[in-house]
């Protein structure tokens, strides 16, 4: 269960300081949502949105079949559409 803005912000900081430290913005980045039963828009907006802004089309979300994950990612696309 991925919920709350503070938890999303904390997760992003942790990932940036470890996993993403040596990843170039020109490399594909894959977010795997396998096993995620609940994804709230607040958590995803703090975690997914900044990564989408940084990586653009190089960011790929996989295993998004969960209704919660699917709905949240679609919602984020709608509210951040330019």
What helical percentage do the residues reach? 40-55%
Main beta sheet, described?
2 strands, parallel
Categorize the overall geometry.
globular
Helix segment tally: 3
Strand content: 5-15%
Question: What do these coordinates show?
Answer:
- With about 80 residues, this protein is mainly alpha-helical.
- The chain has one domain (about 5-80).
- Helix content is about 50%, strand content about 10%.
- It has 3 helices and 2 strands.
- The chain has a two-stranded parallel ribbon.
- Strand 1 (about 30), helix 2 (about 40-55) and strand 2 (about 60) form a beta-alpha-beta unit.
Q: What's the SSE blueprint?
A:
Blueprint: H1 5-17, E1 29-32, H2 41-55, E2 59-62, H3 67-79
Parallel strand pairs: 1-2
Helix pairs in contact: 1-2, 2-3
Salient structural properties:
two-stranded parallel ribbon; globular; mainly alpha; 82 residues
Short summary:
This protein has 82 residues and is mainly α. The chain contains 3 helices and 2 strands; from the N terminus they run H-E-H-E-H. The protein has one domain.
